[in-house]
Amino acid sequence: MSSIQLPIAHFNDVYRCHQKYSSPTPRPSAPSSTDKADKKFENQDRFISAAQFAHTLLTARAGWQDSKTKKDTKEGLVLFSGDVFSPSVESTITRGSHMVPGNHDFGILSNIIDTTTNKTPESLKPFLILERCGLKIGILGLVEKDWIATIPSFPDTFEHVSMKDTALKYSQILRDPDGPYKADIIIGLTHSRVGNDIALANEVGAVLGQDGKQEGLDILLGGHDHFYYIGRGIEGWENWDRPEKFPGAEEDSSCLVIKSGTDFRDLSTFTLNLVPTPDETHKRRYIIQSVDLGKHHEITPETETDEGIQHLIDSLLSRVAEDLERPACYTMTEWNCRSTSVRTDESPIGNLFADILMHAGGAKKKEIQADCVILCGGALRGDSTYGPGQINLGDILEILPFEDPIVMIEMSGAALWDTLESSLSKYPAQEGRFPVIAGLRIVWDSSLPPLSRVKSIHLVTHPKNKSRPTSPGKDSLKILVKPREDGVGIEINAPKPDECEVEVKREKGGQMYKVVTRDYMAQGYDGFEAMKDSAYTSMDDENGQVMSTLIRQYLLGATFLMRRKRLNDYIVHSESEEPTKSSNTKDSSGEGSQAKSTQSREISTSWKAIRDAFLAARNEHMSSVDAVGGEALRKTKRIPHPPPHTSSSTIDSASAKNKVDQNRVDVNGQPRQTQDMKFFVQGRNRQVLKELGDDVAIVVPRLDGRLKDIGRK
Question: Which residues cross the membrane (predicted)?
Fold first, then answer.
């Protein structure tokens, strides 16, 4: 018997039908930012669509041979490893009307049993047998146990069976030479983290060099992780370079594992080169000799589009497209929402959202102020980068698509410790439970065993009144804006706030802490069992609002306050800068270089500024700034001056100069520490910065060391 070539296309974890394109530089597979196409469009918003993904997939499939036995069938397989459409902006707005009727995340679910029937849950299949290229191919669907904790609707009567035991059980059934199926190979479609995929591959023989004498699976095609990964049993993969070290993949020496990215951005195509085993003493009739012609297809704005599918997408989403493009804020720093960032470390965007939610329940005098916020990295979606520049309403909904309410609960010190130990226990796996915090300062050690990594937890308070400083300047960012011919250079100097830290002791009695979190977490899902059964305070599952609404509420309030101010309310001063070229030199905006100057601005980041914004949004008439509620925002005359601060406190530019030196010392008279950042705004965004400075809220997400890992080198 000769070898057989089986072509396969694989993808996983797809959500958004239409999305803003950002160059995926953190991923090993990313094209260089110096590509000509990137340079041509570097100053424009660019988008990709599921219709481009469809064209890529259909083009690859068209190259396969037609089936000799089945009409309209190709001699290959298109396989999908779970998670489709939700959460996403589209699913939030269309309420699922854009989904295919009868669609399931898993049509095949092999290792979940309904204990009321002792069978696979109704409407799902325990396995599938397909025939391609003269082969009988078994397909299993396997999920890791941790996946169950992320499903609020998971029935109590459903029971998880280990992936290994299930794989070996069905291998015996499907490969039985005297049985009804006589499978030649078995493919596992998994929905689990890369570390669990690799462990399973080693346990069930999905490795290169398998002799075929043991039961098991031949190859694993995985989902759940939102990155691209090719196991070390596979060589020569086009458009993907394997890094020397890959977190979670330390036990991979020769595994046949493929994980195909996320979100209609990535597609894998490859061919299994299968050779028959010599005799009937082997459990497996065929083994994988090699995986050939492997290619990572990365969807870019230049990828050709399937017009039929694009028309369908446009017709479904056109009614909301205009509102989603409305500006929500302007960010001076990048929002990195990739899972490699928000699920493994402290992130600027996580800090910003958590700081805002500290005041979600305390913007009114009679409401209770939170002690801290504990969210999870899995709440921040999009898996892309946004800004620096304008952030639209669609971006906010894309990043925050979940619809469970934000609540406030009371927890003991012991429960806080247990919660944070659990949320840090899965690192380096990119689990959604990774913590996003405010009001706390945590020191942990990722090199220690899980559930023993937290070294200390402190509540961050102000020495006098347990709140952040409220006076202008003392808690403000100093921003230097230096116009350049090819853009605008921006340097940010952020003084360390005046604060003190109170230790949170790991004890069940004593002080109780008011914690803002998602109701999903408060119900104990995704590893947050320590939160379960905690008492609600001022915000519960009935009166709490969804996270995207609260963030937008803050941004609307901040915008409203900015538009209420006049020039003498802004903290702005300028310092002359000598022109670098002759006076007749023009910069990219058409202005002479003599007009260039270094502008210094201060934007208040105090917690009082956040509270003021919430109060404005809740108590003022917001139609003039509500991006969805009317056209007044776009019609109001702009004030052509640099960005203002967001606090309601006022100070004129002359007094600002007198206060600069005073603001360089803390409450003890010691020099204040600063955290500096530098970045660059290019091309189109340079003009946007100028135009939107007084039009929408300006935010500056940044790191401040609130989640410090002492074990990571």
Answer: none
